[in-house]
Amino acid sequence: xxxxxxxxxxxxxxxxxxxxxxxxxxxxxxxxxxxxxxxxxxxxxxxxxxxxxxxxxxxxxxxxxxxxxxxxxxxxxxxxxxxxxxxxxxxxxxxxxxxxxxxxxxxxxxxxxxxxxxxxxxxxxxxxxxxxxxxxxxxxxxxxxxxxxxxxxxxxxxxxxxxxxxxxxxxxxxxxxxxxxxxxxxxxxxxxxxxxxxxxxxxxxxxxxxxxxxxxxxxxxxxxxxxxxxxxxxxxxxxxxxxxxxxxxxxxxxxxxxxxxxxxxxxxxxxxxxxxxxxxxxxxxxxxxxxxxxxxxxxxxxxxxxxxxxxxxxxxxxxxxxxxxxxxxxxxxxxxxxxxxxxxxxxxxxxxxxxxxxxxxxxxxxxxxxxxxxxxxxxxxxxxxxxxxxxxxxxxxxxxxxxxxxxxxxxxxxxxxxxxxxxxxxxxxxxxxxxxxxxxxxxxxxxxxxxxxxxxxxxxxxxxxxxxxxxxxxxxxxxxxxxxxxxxxxxxxxxxxxxxxxxxxxxxxxxxxxxxxxxxxxxxxxxxxxxxxxxxxxxxxxxxxxxxxxxxxxxxxxxxxxxxxxxxxxxxxxxxxxxxxxxxxxxxxxxxxxxxxxxxxxxxxxxxxxxxxxxxxxxxxxxxxxxxxxxxxxxxxxxxxxxxxxxxxxxxxxxxxxxxxxxxxxxxxxxxxxxxxx
Length: 678
Known about the structure:
Keywords: Membrane, Transmembrane, Transmembrane helix. The protein is α/β, with parallel strands linked by helices. It has helices at residues 10-30, 42-45, 134-152, 162-168, 171-176, 185-191, 195-219, 224-257, 265-268, 275-285, 304-312, 321-344, 355-379, 389-396, 405-424, 431-437, 462-470, 497-506, 510-515, 528-542, 561-575, 595-613, 621-630, and strands at residues 64-68, 93-97, 444-451, 485-491, 516-520, 545-552, 581-583, 591-594, 644-645. Strand 7 (581-583) and strand 8 form a beta hairpin. The longest helix has 34 residues, at 224-257. It is elongated.
């Protein structure tokens, strides 16, 4: 028997035990006993620690060796009882019953464990008691208060979005957005929800949050509620901040530098409710499997399928890919941080090991013992020791545990992106619908005023630009738009060979003869303001058209740009009936005015001419026209807040190096796919 020593450290005890056990194993290997198959090595262990007896004496199987009980430490350790036939355990000693190697049986979760303190089974929790948890109570109270406040007043007036936060500085709306349930007509319309579905989502999200709290607080030992609350606060701050950054990067930044990565919805997607924070908690919860089996199979994860369904209910009525995608991203990094702390035992022991990890480490430790014994017998090497528990723990709880998160992330993102495609896909407006919905009694629905003038080095783009327009015009009279759209090519130069050549060319094309009118006024002065005033007043008074669009001759339509223009005009009439115009291009091209507003804008340009004659400065003519649509000029003050734009530029710039004003641009500037400047 080995006498216990109160001054021995846990490390020394483990070393002594390892030496004793392997000395015994070596003794049997070197001195086999053919006549007694159940020959025991216990007599060898009775000698001094680390020594080997000269000759082992027979001893019956099941002889007991008492090993001192290790002191309590942050990392609990206890040896397993390997033989069921061992005598009863003394109250103060840990027993190793040694029999033949073949009698060693694997540890069972029903017997003693490497972890002496086993958490008691979690009592069943009723549905209503979930809502009494500390953090859930706070969320529920804030939701009721903020939602009733929004219902009784006008705050917030609309959904929070990066465009409101970054440019209108609506920070308070952002802070209360998780707790606002849309119930007013304005918020319901902005959130694309009905009142019934809005209330269903509110209850579902709060219930889902309560389930997350119930699970995750059980994972964190001691002060689990405080840890969960602080975790939520940190993730909320990061989600709100990252959402604004992503909105800016994937609209303002990539919109001009990398058009392929431009997503207009990043700036305008409605952000209300708990959805992104639930997705973040979903990623964190994926770290902790519910099954005690060693498996990484997706459907074995702790309540993850149910929680995914509850989270994805938010996808049914509208797209939330950017808002909730941000939550998933933050949740992933939160899970990485948690795993980092668990791997190194930080957080002051505030994070405990889940039952699954304990079972996994038990099994790994047992397999390691069996493998080492086999290796020892085969190689006759007595110097190899049993791998330490710390080493097995490190292997079992490695970074591979993060692999549990990826199936959840991929599945959730697949649904989010798919939902976004469904909700944002819009069919093109049919010509008959477009024709009937916008003042069908007016002779012309749309008149395109194509401004052209001589350019440097005699370059002309009239043919290419006009062709891109005519290619989209209807060919048959049965089309409702056949007789309601037209083009007026206007120049203010007497000597302009490019104009003459283009006219001669298109006069031979039947579609051009039907839809194109040519207007030339005598002159030679290069004055864009004067030309615009003359053109707008002449065409605007002569043609009874709902819209008068100012176009420049070096801006042809992009692929599908014409149809997108019609879609934008239709949406403007449906959603902003009092709008003054639509802007689908840049500079002085793509400005589509209501005819009366265009005539008003001509007076602004005329006033600028007078201001210049007095030696004062004025904005460029295209900026003056834009300011009228924006309602920033006193003549057009009624237009404030009504301008509608396309998401991207629907026209490309051909004359980047041959501007009539003498300047130039980079070849890749203001091209198809660029985000609209407004």
